Structure formats: structure tokens, C-alpha cells
From TrEMBL:
Record protein name field: Extracellular calcium-sensing receptor-like
Alphabetical list of InterPro entries matching this protein: ANF_lig-bd_rcpt (IPR001828), GPCR_3 (IPR000337), GPCR_3_9-Cys_dom (IPR011500), GPCR_3_9-Cys_sf (IPR038550), GPCR_3_C (IPR017978), GPCR_3_Ca_sens_rcpt-rel (IPR000068), GPCR_3_CS (IPR017979), GPCR_3_vmron_rcpt_2 (IPR004073)
Entry membrane topology: Multi-pass membrane protein
Organism in which the protein naturally occurs: Erpetoichthys calabaricus (Rope fish)
TM region positions: 588-613, 625-646, 658-682, 703-721, 746-770, 782-802, 808-829
GO CC aspect terms: plasma membrane
Length: 896
């Protein structure tokens, strides 16, 4: 045989023939045969038990013995016969050409499958003489095998001759390698497509934490690796284990312990039922329930779906080969009758197994004493052979035959001069060679009689189409495998996966889909934080920090809000920051406004008193004109504080600082001039000193105007160069926008304050030096005390201003303005008003000059009382200022 094959190889590739004459021993195989113009080969697993012959090497080995015929396998073989018959009856497909077939049983043995492939390549003629290499080979293509391993071996042989091989059940992705298997095609999707379908199912139900098991063979190892690579973009694997093919008790116990300890509720298995059976027995023994099993196509339709296993495996979701109803197939199957042609010996084995009898021609030993007559009725029995409700692998066989037929039809329709071969030649349909069929197989693309497109990609793989099935229990406890969805990768628009969720049976107490996650999803407002040493699917949910948000589920990071926005309490949305400023409507604004208004009223009230009593000694003795200026400037100081309240604008920002600077400079200028007048007046009492006439009323007004003009000039330059402008402060409080006035030029602002401080210091020094000048009502003493209050308030203001947040900064500034203004007002004018209003008997020149001892004592007692009163006011003012600032700082710390 091997020499004969080599001769074939030489002929087909070198295009010459070698005359040979020899007798070859034929393989004894079970098969089906039908003569035709063009022959197709097929290899099917019909019998599931085989006994190898004894190899003594002393005599010719006996043939393999096969038994235990499987009706599903025989149905697949007959489906090929039916497809050939249907094509022959179709006048539009391969007209005037009759297809025939050689079909062999591989008995689930790779060695027998290889023998069958060899027989199909070389033919079954026992004598070959003067063989012409120009004749067509015994078969031009082969349908089969079922398993991936035998398909790999057979395809390597067929590729030597360029013979197409179309498998209907081999799913190993390795067969997609066109370098190693250039002539291999299949009508069942590759395991790569199966893995994609299973991952899509897992994604559909939101399962991100699963375990996978695979058989200890090429199918299992390849599937596990592919699944691990694809699934890592969807979720994480809790475990990845290999199921031993033998009953390895320790390994089985190891796997079951992992399943029990794992929190994964979904387990995917790539294996055949015989490998799963040992594991299933241990699962039943340990009563492991509450798991959702995902079955590969290798066992999704298996006998494991039984009532005995349903308590543990019920609700299994599986991938299954696409099912289709083939019209008239059942009728064709029921027409099969015994044929004693040795080429159709498989029919005899089928008949004897179906009816549990023996034909007399085959054996003298009868089964149960029953003899086959050949007239038995197939309709009387209900078996997997006659059941055409679940045509899955049989449908793939049907598509395989039609794919070969369409390739031959395209070859037949070739026009001379336009062919794909050398010099535009076409192949001869009556002398077609396998490599010519292979060329057309790569271009096959058609709609089969059942309305489904059949085509192959560049790797020879079929379109990825699967049924999604679910193990369910129907009436009277019968187990059924129900189709609940479809995975079709050829869909151009829409999703490849379609599942009817309401049709699925869930084997859980809730009757709902289980939740299989390592960690629950992080809701918007939180982010994922990985756990050290654990898969990425296991994480903690950490709330976003203030000012940051996350808007999607399972966000890996939080995003900071824009500068004018802040996170809401849920940290899932950026909202506009609260705009804050010291307004007239709030309690603090109302309080400060009231105090400022009170200060204005008091100032004008004192002014009214002074104007009314302008002819009295106290008013005249204290330079009434400067007192009027001083009272008006104090009223302006109280008034300017109102510019600090309300929403900042370009007008108010300019006015508040300018009015503040000019008002206080006017006030302190009046006090400074008053102090100078007191000093000059007392110095003028010395005989011959005429300095008082050089500092009269005009000079006093001019001095006040000069000092105020300097401040006004500084303010004008400040406003021209870099004026204060409204600004949004987002740094003091992150959750708020503080509307405030930016001073613009810091130098300008410093000059304004520095000039005020300079005048105040000069005034304080002069008043302090004149405090002991003889007078019952020496105004220098009160000016000294007022300057102490003024400086103390503004020195206490600095740390309070720096440490106060937001609008409280403005409040501190207003408080300082009001406190210092009230300090000046009370320290300067309280003694005078007290004499004018409450002690009018002292409001005379004699009392002022201190010429009456009684009046002098009375005046001194009065001054002592007034000083004590002012000291109390000063103490309360400073204490209130420090307490106010301290309260604000405390509030800020609590808020932060």
C-alpha cells in the first residue's frame, strides 16, 4: 500500500504514468458505497468500541473488530448519502454529473481513520495494471474526520496530494494554520469562535469572576489558553485547572476543593462527557450546588443532561452546533434497507443492532434466537437514528457535501480561455484532480437550500454560528435541552449574541441569574482601588475626594472638577460652586450695616451738638472748625465701611479702598493739626512767642488739605496704574467662590496704608509729648488715648485678617474700620459731650482755666471718671476684636 501511494504522489505531481502490476492486500473496513461520475470520500464514527488484533508477527494480523454501533453516527453518514442524492436530483447543480461516495467507519480509532483515509486515496482495486496518471483519483475530496487529532494526521497526508478535506466536527484552532494544513476546511466553527461566544455570554450576564476547567488533551489545553487570553479584557479567572482523563482521585479532590472554596459562581468547562464524569461523581458526592455551569459544544448536548444529574447540573448554559431541519431527511432515513454488497456492509451492522437480530448469512449464532429478515419496519422504533429534531453535526455534514458540490459546479462552469489555470485553461470535470477542486473550494460562497450562507474565510474556517442552549426540566420531569439564543459572528449590524433571557431556567432558589463577581461594582462617586496580591477584579471602592467626581460605574480614577465647579455630596456630578460674598441680606451684613449707620448717626449727632453749643467755652477751646472736620471725616469713615458690603463690582472695588484711605487720612490729619495747635497754643503763653499767629485757621485748613491731598494723589496713581478689580477667589475655600476685590497693585495699597500709619504714628508721638501740658481739659491726653485705641485695633487686625476665610476677611476689615472709628469718636468727643450735656456748670472759661479750687477738683474728678470710662471702652474694644477674630479662626478650622 505504501509503495502504491508513493506512486500516486509521483504521478499527480510529475504528470506521467508508470506501468505497475502488483497485488495489494486491502483493508477490511465497514462502509457505505454508491457509484458516481465523481466520487467523494467520508469518514464517520459509527461504532464506538474496537478491539485491536493480536500482533504476534508470526502470521498475518486479523482485522480490527468494531462493535456498539451509534445511531447518531450512522445518521450523520446517511445524511451525507442524502445530500449526494439531493444534489443528483437537482438539475441546476452539476447538471449531467452524478456524484458518488465511499464512506468508512473509523470506530473512534485514529489508526482505523488513517486506514480509511489511505483506502479512499488509493482506491479498493486489488489489482492495478498499466495505471494511467491521467485518470481521476478514487475520490476528489473527503468529508471528515470528527476529532481534531485524527483530522490533523489525515490532513497532513491529504495535503501532499492537494486533496480537500472538509471536517464537520474538528474544532482545534491549530487546523486554521494554512501553512501546515493547506487543504483543510471545516463547516463547524473553530474553538476560537466558541471561546468568543462563551465570553459574550458571560459579558451579557455581567459575570466577571469565573473559573475554568479543561480536559487534559490538545482540545482542553488550547481552549483554556484561548479563553484566558480573550477573557482577560472582560474579567478575571478565579481558578484554571486541568481535568485528568483517568480517575485520579487526588487531582479530582483538589479540583472539587477549589470549586467549593472559590467565590466564583460561574464555571466554564472545555471537555467531553467521559472526562467530566469522574469530576461530576465527586461533585455529587460532596453535594456542591449553587454553581452555574457553562458547557462547551463537546458536552452541551450530552447524556449528562439527565434527571439523575439535574439537581447539580440543571440550568447549564451551553454552546451547541447550529441546528437546522433538513426536509425529507427523515423519509430518506426510513427508506434504508439491508444491502449484502460488501461495500455496504455497514448497513448490515446497523440493521442487526437496530432490531437486535442476526442475518443468517453473517453468523450461525443468533442474538436471543432472533433472525433478521430485512423486512423489519424502522418506523416502529424510536431511536437517535430516526430523530431529526436535533440535526447539528448532521447539518454540518450536509453543508460540507454542498460546499464540495458547489466547488465542482464552479469548476464545471469554467469557460475555456478564462480559466484560473495555466494559459487560462479549465479543469476537465470528467477527469478532475483534487488540487483543482481545492482551488475552487477556497472561493466557495453560496446560500444552501435551507437559506443559510456557506463560505470559508482565508483559514478555511466556517462562519461562527452557534446555538445557545439551556438544560431545563419540562412536564413529568423530562429533561430537555432548549435553544434560548444564537451567536452569529457574521451579523453585520447589531450584536452577534442574541439571548432570550426570559426563556432561561436558573437552577437557583431565586430563579434569577446568579451574581459572579469578586467585588461589587463601584458606583459613581467612587473609584476602584486594587487589593495587593489579588486579581484586578478584586478591589475596594474608595470615595472620591472633595472636588473630584466619577460619573461611570467601576471608574478607575476620579476626575477633578473645573475651577468654577465643585463636587456634589454624592461625588458624581460637578455643580457650580456657591458664590459667597458679604451681602446686606445676611445677619452679619445687617449687623455691620447697623453699626455703621449708628456710627454715622452718632457722628452727626455730636456735630449737631457742637454746632448748637458753638458759643460755649468747651467748643471754642477745642478748635470748633477742626472738630467739625473731624466729625465729618469720622462719619465718612463709618460710611466707607458700607462699600465693603455687597457683591464686588468695578465701582465698589475702587471706592472702598479710596474712600477708606482718604477718610482716615482726613480724620488723622485733623487730629494731627489739633495736636500741633495744642502744643503751639501752650508754647505761645510764653511772653514774646508769636508762633500762634503763623498757624492760624488758614494754615490749619491748609495743613489738613495738604495731608489729605497726598493720600488722594497716591489713590489716583493707584487707580491709574493698577486699580482694584473684582476677582473670584477659589483657593480660600475649595467648595466656594469668594467674590472679593483684588487690590491690583500691592505697592499702591501698601502706600495707602503706610501713609495712614505714618500720620497716626506722628500724631501719637506729638500727642504723647503734649499730654502733661497744664489744662483741665487737655485734649492731647484724649488724642493720645485715641491713637492708642486706633493703633491697637489695626495691629490686632493684621493676624485676624490673614487667618480669616472667605467673606469673614471682609468682615474683619469692616470691624476694624468701625472699631477704630468708634475709638476715635468716643475718646475725643465723649468728655466734651459729657461736659456740654451733663455738666453745663463746668462749660465756662473759669472751669477750663482751673481758677476755682472746687471747680478744679470737680473737673479733675470728672476727667478721672471719663478716663476710667474710656479705658473700659478701650479694653472692651480690643477684647471684642481679639475675640471676634478668634471666633472666626475657630469657625474656619471647624469648617476645614
Amino acid at each position: 500500500k505504501r509503495f502504491f501511494l508513493y506512486t500516486y504522489y509521483s504521478c499527480w505531481n510529475e504528470h506521467y504514468w508508470v506501468p505497475l502490476t502488483f497485488v495489494s492486500k486491502l483493508f477490511s473496513l465497514y462502509g457505505l458505497y454508491k457509484k458516481g461520475d465523481i466520487m467523494l470520500g467520508g469518514i464517520f464514527p459509527v461504532q464506538y468500541f474496537s478491539v485491536p488484533p493480536e500482533l504476534s508477527f508470526r502470521s498475518k494480523p486479523d482485522k480490527w473488530k468494531c462493535d456498539n454501533l451509534d445511531f447518531s453516527g450512522f445518521q450523520s453518514a446517511q445524511t451525507m448519502a442524502y445530500a449526494v442524492d439531493e444534489i443528483n436530483r437537482n438539475v441546476s447543480l452539476l447538471p449531467n454529473i452524478t456524484l458518488g461516495y465511499w464512506l468508512y467507519d473509523n470506530c473512534i480509532r485514529m489508526s482505523i481513520g488513517l486506514r480509511a483515509a489511505t483506502a479512499l486515496i488509493s482506491g479498493q482495486e486489488s489489482v492495478v495494471s498499466d495505471y494511467s496518471c491521467n485518470q481521476a483519483p478514487p475520490v476528489v475530496a473527503l468529508v471528515g474526520d470528527t476529532g481534531s487529532s485524527p483530522s490533523i494526521a489525515i490532513s497532513r497526508i491529504l495535503s501532499l496530494f492537494g486533496m480537500p478535506m472538509v471536517s464537520y466536527f474538528a474544532t482545534c484552532p491549530c487546523l486554521s494554520n494554512k501553512v501546515e494544513f493547506p487543504s483543510f476546511f471545516r463547516t463547524i466553527p473553530s474553538d476560537d469562535f466558541q471561546v468568543k461566544a462563551m465570553v459574550e455570554i458571560i459579558k451579557h450576564f455581567g459575570w466577571t469572576w469565573v473559573g475554568i476547567l479543561g480536559s487534559d488533551d490538545e482540545y482542553g489545553h488550547t481552549a483554556l489558553k484561548t479563553f484566558s487570553d480573550v477573557f482577560q479584557t472582560v474579567g478575571c479567572l478565579s481558578f484554571n485547572e486541568i481535568i485528568p482523563q483517568a480517575n485520579d482521585k487526588l487531582k479530582i479532590l483538589h479540583i472539587t476543593n477549589i470549586i467549593k472554596q472559590s467565590t466564583a459562581k460561574v464555571i466554564v468547562i472545555f471537555a467531553v462527557s467521559r472526562d467530566i464524569s469522574f469530576l461530576l461523581n465527586e461533585i455529587i458526592l460532596q453535594n456542591i450546588t449553587g454553581r452555574q455551569w457553562i458547557a462547551s459544544e463537546a458536552w452541551s448536548l450530552d447524556s449528562l443532561a439527565s434527571e439523575e444529574n439535574f439537581y447539580w447540573l440543571g440550568g447549564t448554559i451551553g454552546i451547541a452546533i447550529r441546528r437546522k431541519d433538513i426536509p425529507n431527511l427523515e423519509k430518506f432515513l426510513l427508506q434504508v434497507r439491508p444491502d449484502f454488497d460488501p461495500a455496504n456492509n455497514l448497513v448490515i451492522r446497523f440493521w442487526e443492532t437496530m432490531f437486535e437480530c442476526k442475518f443468517p448469512e453473517n453468523s450461525s449464532t443468533l442474538i436471543n434466537g432472533k433472525t433478521c429478515t430485512g423486512s423489519e419496519d424502522l418506523k416502529s422504533l424510536s431511536t437517535a437514528y430516526t430523530d431529526t429534531s436535533q440535526l447539528r453535526s448532521a447539518y454540518n455534514v450536509y453543508k460540507s457535501v454542498y460546499a464540495l458540490a458547489h466547488a465542482l459546479h464552479d469548476l464545471m462552469m469554467c469557460k475555456k480561455g478564462e480559466g484560473p489555470f495555466e494559459n487560462g485553461s479549465c479543469a476537465d470535470i470528467f477527469n478532475v484532480q483534487p488540487w483543482q477542486v481545492l482551488f475552487y473550494m477556497r472561493k466557495v460562497n453560496f446560500i444552501n437550500p435551507l437559506g443559510e450562507r456557506v463560505a470559508f474565510d482565508k483559514n478555511g474556517d466556517a462562519l461562527g454560528i452557534y446555538d445557545i442552549v439551556n438544560w431545563q426540566k419540562i412536564n413529568q420531569g423530562k429533561i430537555t435541552i432548549k435553544t434560548v439564543g444564537v451567536y452569529d459572528e457574521s451579523v453585520i449590524t447589531g450584536k452577534a449574541l442574541t439571548i432570550q433571557d426570559n426563556e432561561i431556567f436558573w437552577n437557583f432558589p431565586s430563579k434569577l441569574a446568579p451574581e459572579s463577581i469578586c467585588s461589587k461594582s463601584c458606583q459613581p462617586g467612587t473609584r476602584k482601588a486594587s487589593r495587593k496580591g489579588e486579581p484586578v477584579c478584586c478591589f475596594d471602592c474608595v470615595p472620591c475626594a472633595e472636588g473630584e467626581i466619577s460619573t461611570v460605574v467601576d471608574s478607575s480614577e476620579c476626575f477633578r472638577c473645573p475651577s468654577d465647579f465643585w463636587s456634589n455630596p454624592g461625588r458624581n456630578q460637578c455643580v457650580e460652586k456657591e458664590v459667597e460674598f458679604l451681602s446686606f441680606e445676611e445677619s452679619m451684613g445687617i449687623t455691620l450695616t447697623t453699626i455703621a449707620a449708628l456710627g454715622i448717626c452718632v457722628s452727626f449727632s455730636v456735630l449737631a451738638v457742637f454746632i448748637h453749643f458753638r458759643e460755649t467755652a468747651v467748643v471754642k477751646a477745642n478748635n470748633s472748625e477742626l472738630s467739625y472736620f473731624l466729625l465729618v471725616s469720622l462719619a465718612l469713615c463709618f460710611l466707607c465701611s458700607l462699600f465693603f458690603i455687597g457683591e464686588p463690582s468695578h465701582v465698589t472695588c475702587r471706592l472702598r479702598h479710596v474712600a477708606f484711605g482718604i477718610s482716615f487720612v482726613l480724620c488723622i490729619s485733623c487730629l494731627l493739626v489739633k495736636t500741633v495747635v495744642v502744643i503751639i497754643a501752650f508754647k505761645a503763653t510764653v511772653p514774646g512767642n508769636n508762633r500762634i499767629k503763623w498757624f492760624g485757621a488758614v494754615q490749619q485748613r491748609g495743613t489738613v488739605f495738604f495731608f489729605t491731598s497726598v493720600e488722594t494723589l497716591i489713590c489716583i496713581l493707584w487707580l491709574v496704574i493698577s486699580p482694584p478689580v473684582p476677582a473670584k477667589n477659589t483657593n480660600s475655600e475649595h467648595s466656594k467662590i469668594i467674590l472679593e476685590c483684588n487690590v491690583g497693585s500691592v505697592t499702591g495699597f501698601a502706600c495707602v496704608l503706610g501713609y495712614i500709619f505714618f500720620l497716626a504714628c506722628v500724631c501719637f508721638v506729638l500727642a504723647f509729648l503734649a499730654r502733661n501740658l497744664p489744662d483741665s481739659f487737655n485734649e492731647a491726653k484724649f488724642i493720645t488715648f485715641s491713637m492708642i485705641i486706633f493703633l491697637a485695633v489695626w495691629i490686632a487686625f493684621i493676624p485676624a485678617y490673614v487667618s480669616s476665610p472667605g467673606k469673614y476677611t471682609i468682615a474683619v476689615e469692616i470691624f476694624a474700620i468701625l472699631a477704630s472709628s468708634f475709638g476715635l469718636l468716643m475718646a475725643i468727643f465723649t468728655p466734651k459731650c459729657y461736659i456740654i450735656l451733663l455738666k453745663p456748670e463746668l462749660n465756662n472759661k473759669r472751669s477750663l482755666m482751673g481758677r476755682s479750687t472746687n471747680n478744679k477738683n470737680t473737673a479733675q474728678n470728672t476727667l478721672f471718671s471719663i478716663k476710667l470710662f474710656l479705658i473700659c471702652i478701650f479694653h472692651n474694644t480690643v477684647t471684642t476684636s481679639v475675640s471676634f477674630c478668634g471666633n472666626i479662626s475657630t469657625k474656619r478650622k471647624k469648617k476645614l
